[in-house]
Every structure is written in structure tokens, then in C-alpha cells.
Write a structure and sequence with these properties.
The protein is α+β, with helices and mostly antiparallel strands. Helices cover about 60% and strands about 10% of the residues. Strands 1-2-3-5-4 form a 5-stranded mixed beta sheet, with helices on one face.
């Protein structure tokens, strides 16, 4: 630049931008790419023995050089703790031993080991890789005797030993890969078996609940039939109403039986599942308000919205919808403390829609990851009646569960 010339404003800006980019690039290259692996006491002991063994393996006839040779191999004792630093220390001591062939060869061997360690263990990948050609250039420029001559008798060993080492490493890698694939296959089979058992368990539980619903209807039919028989001669109108009630209960019971056929299961020994003696009717949509109130009592804000023409539905349909709401609110209490939840029940002409939405919150201290049986059970329940369900996380946070139950065939 000529004397007196002034750099323009744009020129200074470009210069600063380029300098900043170069500085940022240098920082990125010097940034550690991975943590340094831990060093066990066995590894530390091996490194110390390796340094001593290399020192004893080199023939030397001048005792005055022992201290210098010890200085050459000493960095190998710390090669795994400070890989790149030890490599540069070995390179720094190389020019100091150029007058003694044994010490120079020892420095070369130490450099090979230190270079390997830096390439494998150093978290500074780019500086470590750049140091390798620098090391090679250094030893080619110092003296020719730095690189030892290989005797002809040692050539077969130099060929066969690496092949043997590589073959053994390949065999171990293949064995570990086979073991990993076998373990993965076993885990997949165990997971499939666990899901199958969970589905069977849930089907048996659903079947027991449907058994309760059908038994309740049949019990009402028996009572109404007995009442009709009692008043048949005295009051025909009252007997007619009782028989109509019997007919209605029979139709409801038959509808439930059609859905439960193929689902009702027995235990492995062929006996009746336990719990079928309890004839207490299961909850329906008329008890949703009580369920929501119980959840509110736990501290969760819940809003219940019912739209459409409210009408009585088959007990199995109402029980399934109730269980969907119950499971979704239970998950909200466990995994979204402090959230706001909304329950919507929409009576449509041919479908019943049930939606549960929460805004998300913090998991309770007693919450666990769960085993997924709740969702499996809900899908099984809905499948009995031809229904579907979607459960997903919301983009804005929280969870959304939507179920549909067809009513046209009821």
C-alpha cells in the first residue's frame, strides 16, 4: 500500500470479516470432537511397562545416553492421558538425540507408538491427523539412520504377524456382530411375546367386563319376566310393559354377546376366568361427571363438554367410552401435573366421538415410563365395536386422544 493511502470503510469491514471467519474456523478445528476415554490402572501399568520394555529392547553401549533415552520413552507412560501432547514431546526430543543412533531409533519407535495413540485417542482429531505427516517429514530429514533397516529374516514376520492380528480382529468383530444380532432378535421376540401376553390379558379383562354387562341385562330380563307372569291375569297392560322390557333387555344382551363372541377367552387350563362372579354393572357415560370430579379433586383442572343429542347407548359402548376417558385422564394426572384438560363427548347420528386434550405439565414424582398396556387395552376395546383411536403429542405441548365409536349398527 502506498504511503499515505487510507483504507476505505468497506475494506476494513471486509478485512475484519475475513479475520473473524479465519479465527472462528481455527477455533472449530481446535475444538475437541469427543471426550478423552478414561484410563484404567491396568492401562496405565501397561503403558509404563511398554516404555520400559522399549528402553530395554534397544541395544546401547554408552551409559551416558541412558538418561536421554529414558527421556525419549518417558512420554509413552502418559500417552493415553495426553495423547497429542506426548506425541509433540517425542517429536521435540528427536533433534536432541541425532548424534546417537540407538537413541534416534528409540525415538522413532516411540514416535510410531505416540502417533498411533494420538490418532486413536486424542479428542483433537484435526491437529492429531496433521501431526502425522509432520512426524514423518521430521524423521526423514533428521538422519537416514532414524528409520531402522529391516533384516531379511524379519520380513516374513512383518507380513504374517499383521495378517494374523487383522484376522483375529476380524473374527472377534464378526463374533460380536453375530452376538449383537442374536441379542437383538431375542429382544424383538421377547417384546413381541410381551405384547401378545398383554393383549391376551387385556382381552380377558374386557371379556369379564362384558360378561358383567350381559349378566346384568339377563338378570333384569329374569325379574321382568317374573313380574309379567305374576300380573298377566290381573293387569294385561302392566304385563305387556314388563314383556317389552324383557324384549329390550334381550336385544341389548344379544348385541353385547355378538360383540363378545371371539373375544371371550379362557385360562390356559380351560377354567372360567376369575372374577366373573361379580355381577355389579360397569360404569357408563352417565358417570363421567363423577369421574371428572374425582380427577378435579386431585388438583387437575378438567372441563367436561357434552354436545349432540344425549341418548342411551348399549352398555358396552358406554363402558368403552368411559374407559377411554378414564385412561386418558389417569395418564394426564401421572405425566402432566399442573395441566389443563378438556373432555369432549359428541353424540352424532352415526358415531360417538370422545376427545381428551391436555396442555402438558410436569410428570408426577411417582410416574413411571409404563408398559403400554393402557393403550393396548383401549385399542382392543374399541376394536370390539369397530371403533378407532388416535393418541399423539400436540405440537404446542400436551397430549391429544381421540376415539370414534360407530353407532349405526346399534
Amino acid at each position: 500500500m502506498p504511503p499515505g493511502a487510507v483504507v476505505g470503510k468497506n475494506g476494513r469491514v471486509i478485512h475484519v470479516a475475513v479475520t473473524r471467519r479465519l479465527r472462528d474456523g481455527a477455533r472449530m478445528l481446535l475444538r475437541p470432537s469427543s471426550p478423552l476415554p478414561p484410563v484404567s490402572w491396568r492401562g496405565q501399568l501397561f503403558d509404563v511397562l511398554l516404555a520400559l520394555g522399549l528402553l530395554l529392547a534397544i541395544e546401547h553401549d554408552q551409559s551416558g545416553w541412558v538418561g536421554m533415552m529414558l527421556l525419549v520413552v518417558l512420554p509413552l507412560a502418559f500417552r493415553r492421558r495426553y495423547p497429542l501432547a506426548m506425541l509433540w514431546i517425542v517429536l521435540g526430543t528427536a533433534p536432541l538425540v541425532t548424534d546417537y543412533d540407538a537413541a534416534l531409533r528409540l525415538s522413532f519407535y516411540a514416535c510410531v507408538i505416540a502417533a498411533y495413540t494420538a490418532a486413536v485417542y486424542s479428542p483433537y482429531r484435526v491437529p492429531a491427523l496433521v501431526s502425522l505427516p509432520i512426524a514423518a517429514l521430521l524423521y526423514t530429514q533428521i538422519r537416514e539412520s532414524a528409520v531402522p533397516t529391516v533384516p531379511e529374516d524379519a520380513v516374513p514376520f512383518l507380513i504374517l504377524v499383521p495378517i494374523a492380528v487383522a484376522a483375529e480382529g476380524l473374527r472377534r468383530w464378526k463374533r460380536r456382530a453375530d452376538e449383537g444380532r442374536a441379542k437383538l432378535s431375542t429382544m424383538e421376540r421377547e417384546q413381541a411375546e410381551a405384547l401378545r401376553r398383554a393383549a391376551e390379558h387385556e382381552r380377558a379383562r374386557i371379556a369379564r367386563e362384558l360378561h358383567d354387562v350381559v349378566t346384568h341385562n339377563v338378570s333384569v330380563m329374569v325379574i321382568q319376566a317374573g313380574a309379567a307372569r305374576t300380573v298377566m291375569e290381573a293387569d294385561l297392560d302392566q304385563a305387556r310393559e314388563a314383556l317389552l322390557a324383557v324384549e329390550s333387555g334381550g336385544r341389548a344382551a344379544m348385541a353385547e354377546l355378538r360383540h363378545v363372541m371371539g373375544l371371550l377367552t379362557m385360562d390356559s387350563d380351560g377354567s372360567e376366568p376369575a372374577g366373573t362372579a361379580d355381577l355389579t354393572p360397569q360404569p357408563g357415560l352417565d358417570r363421567l361427571a363423577a369421574l371428572v370430579q374425582r380427577v378435579r379433586d386431585t388438583g387437575l383442572a378438567v372441563e367436561l363438554e357434552v354436545t349432540g343429542e344425549r341418548r342411551p347407548l348399549p352398555p358396552g359402548i358406554e363402558l368403552t367410552a368411559y374407559r377411554v376417558v378414564q385412561e386418558a385422564l389417569t395418564n394426564t394426572v401421572k405425566h402432566a401435573a399442573g395441566a389443563f384438560a378438556t373432555v369432549r363427548v359428541d353424540y352424532r347420528a352415526d358415531e360417538l366421538h370422545v376427545e381428551i386434550t391436555d396442555t402438558g405439565g410436569t410428570p408426577a414424582s411417582s410416574a413411571s415410563a409404563g408398559n403400554g398396556r393402557g393403550l393396548i387395552g383401549l385399542h382392543e376395546r374399541l376394536a370390539v365395536y369397530g371403533g378407532t383411536m388416535q393418541a399423539r403429542r400436540r405440537l404446542t405441548g400436551g397430549y391429544h386422544v381421540a376415539a370414534r365409536l360407530p353407532l349405526a349398527a346399534q
